[in-house]
């Protein structure tokens, strides 16, 4: 077991835990979280639940609607056959193209709705760790709507990740084998006896469980034969195993031979020591810092393996460890775009962001929900920051703090085109006037620039900033104070703070 943190539970440590195990919070939320004490605060991360009706999925994603849609599509097909029976081949083809374009447009609208639904859930959830882990699994078992094309299947996968978020890694890997979105993304659906597709067999070993160097090409080829025969009904999302299309002959995987199917191969993978070490290292780098010590990984891997690959005991040990609150860990990670956007909204206490802002910001910063770039997911850490994305972060902060009239003009009128997803809502961001600065910077506090700055430093950084930076903030606040310190000057001060390298870290 890792050395435990001591009893000195500071406000900064509470903020750090809330940032890493969730998406941050306002000063009041951080103080309430700190008041529980370290142990109870960690307990709350695992016990907090959203109500069953807190975030209803869009109507088009419900099973009842999907079944009704199936009937409608079948009726439309019959009507199409009748409507094109007397047309020339060219006219019939044109009519079919028009119908297909309508279906594509509907899927694109639904895709944007799905992205908005999940973003709102992450921003408003009472169970931040579960949502943070849902995001982790979405990146780990990366699947993109650009190939899957059916938003309802992406939401179904999203619910799968959420239900297994803190459960067994092994059970989730078994479930992902039969997940419709994954079957479409890695072509399991087209893998048949005599024509096995190796995509899932390769990625389940290389990217999902073992890592490079812990399997052979022969293992992949043999495993691919085991992953044959899985059928998917694209209308209903139901999966079955067609024994006639499954290669039931003996296969040799990891030196063991038998008439394995896909589930058997996953069981064989988890008989190896690799999955525990592989996942522990990835979890550590996601929640703590890069390049962990081998001894820490080995210790946690034992916890993980002995706990049946359950995430809760592993995460609990990490969050209670001394190293999680070390100088090497606190404010050492570059915020991902999703973390940056949600944390910004929470810190400015914006319950309802401007129309279209979340998806526009994701696109411009390089992390769009349901659209990881490839099967390896997003590149994290320093890959989030370059000259363009850093300037965009500053512009986004300017738009949110100053409003549509004074903020970054580029955020108000342009409609961003998402590959395979259509465009963001027309007039995105228009009419946004900014946060409630009477609450963020009460009038009495504005008469005391140093106290005002310290209040905002805690709000945005949850820890001290270098004396030189703090001094420049106070100097700016003093110069802007004037006879009346208006909300316009407060917005400029906030934008200055948010446009620093320190704000890019959590």
Written description of the protein model:
There is one protein chain. By secondary structure, this protein is mainly alpha-helical. Among the domains are: 36 residues, no CATH class; 87 residues, no CATH class; 68 residues, no CATH class. It is 56% helix and 4% strand. The chain contains 24 helices and six strands. The strands form three sheets. The protein has a two-stranded antiparallel ribbon. Helix 9 runs antiparallel to helix 13, helix 14 crosses helix 15 and helix 19 runs antiparallel to helix 24. The longest helix is centred in the first third of the chain and has 36 residues. It is globular, with a radius of gyration of 25 Å. The two termini are 26 Å apart.
Helix/strand order, N-terminal first: HHHHHHHHHHHHEEEEHHHHHHHEEHHHHH
- Radius of gyration of CA atoms, rounded to a whole number: 25 Å
Taken as a percent bin, the fraction of beta residues is under 5%
Overall outline: globular
The structural class is mainly alpha
User: Count of helices?
Assistant: 24
Mean pLDDT: 92
Query: How far is the first residue's CA from the last residue's CA?
Result: 26 Å
Low-confidence stretches: 412-416, 418-422
Major pleated sheet: 2 strands, antiparallel
Helix content: 55-70%
- Spatially, the strands of the biggest sheet line up as 1-2
Overall strand count: 6
């Amino acid at each position: 077991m890792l050395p435990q943190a001591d009893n000195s539970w500071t406000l900064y440590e509470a903020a750090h835990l809330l940032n890493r195990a969730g998406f941050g919070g306002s000063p009041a939320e951080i103080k309430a979280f700190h008041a529980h004490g370290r142990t109870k605060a960690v307990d709350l991360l695992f016990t907090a639940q959203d109500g069953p009706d807190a975030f209803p999925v869009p109507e088009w994603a419900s099973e009842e609607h999907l079944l009704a849609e199936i009937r409608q599509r079948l009726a439309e097909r019959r009507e199409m056959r009748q409507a094109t029976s007397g047309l020339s081949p060219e006219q019939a083809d044109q009519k079919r193209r028009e119908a297909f374009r309508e279906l594509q447009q509907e899927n694109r609208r639904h895709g944007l709705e799905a992205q908005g639904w999940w973003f709102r859930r992450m921003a408003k959830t009472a169970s931040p760790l579960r949502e943070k882990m849902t995001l982790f699994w979405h990146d780990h078992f990366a699947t993109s709507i650009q190939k899957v094309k059916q938003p309802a299947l992406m939401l179904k996968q999203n619910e799968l990740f959420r239900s297994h978020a803190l459960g067994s890694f092994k059970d989730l890997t078994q479930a992902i084998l039969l997940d419709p979105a994954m079957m479409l993304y890695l072509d399991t659906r087209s893998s048949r006896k005599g024509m096995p597709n190796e995509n899932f067999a390769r990625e389940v070993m290389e990217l999902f469980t073992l890592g490079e160097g812990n399997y052979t090409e022969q293992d992949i080829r043999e495993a691919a034969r085991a992953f044959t025969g899985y059928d998917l009904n694209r209308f209903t999302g139901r999966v079955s195993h067609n024994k006639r299309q499954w290669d039931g002959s003996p296969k040799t995987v990891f030196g063991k031979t038998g008439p394995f199917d896909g589930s058997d191969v996953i069981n064989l993978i988890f008989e190896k020591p690799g999955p525990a070490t592989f996942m522990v290292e990835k979890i550590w780098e996601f929640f703590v810092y890069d390049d962990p010590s081998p001894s820490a990984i080995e210790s946690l891997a034992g916890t993980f393996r002995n706990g049946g690959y359950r995430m809760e005991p592993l995460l609990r040990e990490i969050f209670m460890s001394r190293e999680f609150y070390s100088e090497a860990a606190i404010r050492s990670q570059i915020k991902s775009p999703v973390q940056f956007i949600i944390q910004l909204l929470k810190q400015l206490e914006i319950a309802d962001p401007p129309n279209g802002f979340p998806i526009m910001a994701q696109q411009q910063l390089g992390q769009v929900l349901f659209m990881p770039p490839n099967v390896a997911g997003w590149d994290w850490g320093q890959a989030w920051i370059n000259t363009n994305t850093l300037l965009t972060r500053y512009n986004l902060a300017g738009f949110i703090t100053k409003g549509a009239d004074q903020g970054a003009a580029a955020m108000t009128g342009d409609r961003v085109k998402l590959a395979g997803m259509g465009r963001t809502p027309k007039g995105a961001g228009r009419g946004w006037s900014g946060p409630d600065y009477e609450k963020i910077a009460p009038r009495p506090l504005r008469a005391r620039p140093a106290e005002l700055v310290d209040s905002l430093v805690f709000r945005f950084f949850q820890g001290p900033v270098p004396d030189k930076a703090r001094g420049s903030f106070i100097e700016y606040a003093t110069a802007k104070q004037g006879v009346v310190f208006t909300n316009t000057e407060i917005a400029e001060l906030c934008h200055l703070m948010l446009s620093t390298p320190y704000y890019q870290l959590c």
